[in-house]
Specification:
This is Abasic site processing protein HMCES. The chain contains seven helices and 15 strands. The chain is an alpha+beta fold and 324 residues long. The protein has a five-stranded antiparallel beta sheet, with no helix packed on it. Strand 10 and strand 11 form a beta hairpin.
Length: 324
């Protein structure tokens, strides 16, 4: 599953890291668009459900007003980066945002076309790419109830996640920075009259690669190449069924243990993604800092309901061609 991830990256850096070649062959850089619901976007090393974080999306999927320079939409750019809510709210939801108790942070690849919550936006072409430095998962320590969090990220020689000067790294690499790009779907929920629409996303998960089975049997769907990103975003030319066939488990990743304090969804310190000594990670009795809540405790908290979608909050596997 993918219930937390890190994206402690400024908007300008995110956009520069998403440069690509458009259909005309020219290099383009997506424009950042503010979300009316989050006028002051805050990068975070610990993005949790209901937080807002940057996603890459086709501009044709958004109804955008003129930009700061007065140019219509994105001045011909094919893609936009905009913060969206982690956990989509279905367009058919009635009531307040706080009354939406379905678990929609993740959706399983195997049954995505069979579940209304995810099938409807997918069939409307609402596909997007979540941008992050890495995602978190928890390993249960042997003969213990303690769970140790790890962050999993790209296996580049000099990972972006661990770079002290991301802007300098961007400059040296001509913008080709290895942010993880996660396949996701989004939906648009219209709340009370006069309030901005809520754009929320769900990250697609697949069976874990062999190298990651030790931590969890699921992993987010990672798009490795520009071709995969392009096919996923181009909903006009690539039907949903074909786009889903782009998705597969990915082996070539790295990881390291991180502080257990980040198990608290409110822990936003920059050190949330920093490596800790292995001996500290394997310490079964090391307590959390006072007042910290673990991921399991957060999920058991009053008011946090699960849908009938399975133990990891995802839809049950139904139909789709079996992947090798």
């Amino acid at each position: 599953m993918c219930g937390r991830f890190a994206c402690a990256v400024d908007p300008e850096v995110v956009c520069r890291a998403c440069r690509y070649r458009g259909h005309d062959g020219a290099v383009q850089q997506p424009k950042w668009r503010d979300n009316p619901r989050v006028p002051h976007y805050n990068p975070s090393a610990n993005v949790a459900p209901t937080n807002y974080s940057p996603v890459l999306v086709s501009r044709k999927n958004l109804k955008l007003a003129a930009d700061d320079e007065g140019e219509p939409e994105t001045s011909g750019n094919e893609r936009v980066v905009i913060p969206m809510r982690f956990g989509l709210i279905p367009s058919w939801h009635r009531g307040e945002e706080s009354g939406m108790h379905l678990s929609t942070t993740n959706c399983r690849w195997e049954g995505i076309l069979e579940k209304k919550t995810f099938a409807k936006p997918l069939k409307k072409g609402r596909r997007c790419v979540v941008l992050c430095e890495g995602y978190y998962d928890w390993k249960k320590l042997e003969k213990s109830k303690t769970k140790q969090p790890y962050i999993i990220y790209t296996a580049e020689e000099k990972p972006f996640l661990q770079s002290e000067n991301k802007d300098e790294l961007l400059t040296k690499s001509a913008g080709k920075v290895p942010l993880l790009k996660l396949a996701a779907i989004f939906d648009v929920w219209r709340p009370s009259e006069g309030e901005p629409d809520v754009y929320g996303f769900s990250i697609i998960t697949v069976a874990a690669a062999k190298s990651l089975i030790w931590i969890h049997d699921r992993m987010p769907a990672i798009l490795l190449s520009e071709e995969e990103v392009s096919q996923w975003l181009d909903f006009e030319k690539v039907p949903a069924e074909d786009a889903l066939n782009v998705i597969h488990p990915v082996e070539d990743l790295k990881w390291h243990p991180v502080t257990r304090a980040m198990g608290n969804a409110g822990y936003k310190n920059p050190d949330a993604s920093k490596p800790i000594p292995l001996e500290e990670a394997e310490d079964k009795v090391k307590p959390l800092p006072k007042g910290q809540m673990t991921m399991a405790s957060f999920l058991r908290a009053p008011g946090t309901k699960r849908s009938s979608t399975g133990a990891d909050g995802q839809s049950s596997p139904l139909k789709l061609a079996k992947r090798e």
